[in-house]
Amino acid sequence: MKEKKKLTTTSGRAYNEYEDSMTAGPRGPVLLQDYFLHEKLAHFNRERIPERIVHAKGTGALGKFTVEHDITKYTCAKLFSKVGNTCKMLARFSTVAGEKGSADTERDPRGFALKFYTEDGNWDLVGNNTPVFFIKDAKKFPDFIHTQKRDPKTNLKSPTMMWDFWSLNPESLHQVMILFSDRGTPDGFRGMNGYGSNTYSMINHSNERIWVKFHFKTLQGISTLTWPEAEIIKGKDPDHAQRDLVNAIANADFPKWALKIQVMTESQAKKFKWNPFDVTKIWPHADYPLIDVGTMELNEIPVNYFANVEQAAFAPANVVDGISFSPDKMLQGRILAYPDAHRYRLGANYEQLPVNRPITEVHNYNRDGFMTIDNNGGDSPNYHPNSFDNIETKVHYKEPPMHLDSNVADTYNRNEHDDDHYTQPGNLFRKVMNENERTNTIFNFVTSMKGITGEKRDEIIQRQLSHFFKADKDLAWRVGKGLDFKFKE
Ligand code: HEM
Fold it and tell me: For the domain with range 58-134+183-352, which CATH number is right: 3.40.50.800, 1.10.3720.10, 3.90.1720.10, 2.40.180.10?
């Protein structure tokens, strides 16, 4: 039998009475000196922290990544230095727009956030289950997310806001097309792919940089829901995807994903038809084939959800030697946004929390701040340069310089083909989807667009149909027919 533990206050004082408050006489009143009562009520009032501004509803699992193929010609990252290397990791899957208690089967991209605890420090790959995104500039992100959240007056989700924004931002069309296919309602997290989506770079031992995209292919097979199926599950089990993952891991049916990369040299990037750093575009697989790297397996549900999942802080800023950024405007914005969000949500020392702490030692001159929970640098100097400590500050690793196209600073920089928002979504609809997928996508578009209301309804529908038309005439025609929409002059 387990040894009994004694009940204590949070400061460790033994306390024997848990259920009854200390009172003057059996009928009360309650005495002010019942400190345990105060502590309990006060701590309860402070249980909630701000939920993530996006991706609030999520599920986490721990696992292992194993390197199975040699990619050292692309990267000098220690993780990839040898076939057979393994690394502990954390994954968090999520929906985007819904609140912490929202339903798992909502139509939404799914977050696919990974933290690799490598010998070089933490590498976070914060992706989605889609290879592209709705916008290509971080400046539009808050506006876009406002349209996915609640109407400022009714506090309801609003298809009018969504379609108004999408129709005014045709760069969203590619992602909208994926979102309204049945990939927009995955049947749980195990049956979906993950994508780094943004373009990153890898740097090898010769200090050469190559552009890279990350793909995690589900080894469970893709599994999606139709709109009606997703609606039914939403009511029956809002935690459908979380339950599926927790149960699979409990039954030792560990889900796995194969990591593959696409690479593009700097000279290929110059000749690529589209901007290779535009997150609304994919790199066609025929031209940039997938290269095998390794396998990720999730095999453990963290012992405490709040400590290890709610407090997990993923950031595209967390790269390691051998993996780096690209000029991708969205990625550049994300490098700032995530650590800023974590400081707000978890506090300035969020990286000291066990789930976020790297397995490597941390040495720098940052000190103090709320909730400092490591030894705060002990008695070592808190300034640099100094004559006392032995931290090596000369550069041990230096990235190659990034070549820029231009040094003209402007806010409206466009290249040829940057406004081609139609070729890739058109190809997706015609060439990648089969007829059943096209039919479901059209049904999903029509069902959602029927929710557009108000004086701007026709204007919004007409604008969106014109984008569909530019991508694929059949698509526009079938959605227009489903909406019984008459074009106006
Ligand atoms: C510039 C555009 C973007 C901005 C400003 C942005 C910002 C944010 C912020 C502030 C959070 C909440 C972080 C937290 O409180 O823990 C978040 C979460 C997240 N974002 Fe983004 N985001 C952007 C684009 C993207 C893109 C393109 C992807 C996918 C490729 C993505 C994937 C995620 C994921 C997966 C999470 C949840 C991470 C977790 O599980 O904790 N975001 N984003």
Answer: 2.40.180.10
The residue nearest atom 14 of ligand 1, judged by CA position, is 52
Q: Which atom of ligand 1 is nearest to the CA of 50?
A: 15
pTM above 0.85, yes or no: yes
Q: What is the pLDDT of residues 461-476, one digit of tens each?
A: 999 999 999 999 999 9
256 lines ligand 1 (CB under 6 A): no
Residue 247 a catalytic site member: no
Give the Cα separation of 164 and 146 in Å (integer).
12
d(C-alpha 163, C-alpha 178), whole Å: 15
Architecture of domain 1-47: Irregular (4.10)
Going by CA atoms, what residue is nearest to atom 35 of ligand 1?
Answer: 111
Q: Is 92 in the pocket of ligand 1 (CB under 6 A)?
A: yes
What is the rounded distance in angstroms from the CA atom of residue 155 to the CA atom of residue 138?
25
Q: Does residue 363 have an active-site annotation?
A: no
Quote the radius of gyration of the chain (alpha carbons, Å): 26
Q: What percent of the chain has pLDDT over 70?
A: 99
Domain ranges in the chain are: 1-47, 58-134+183-352, 423-483
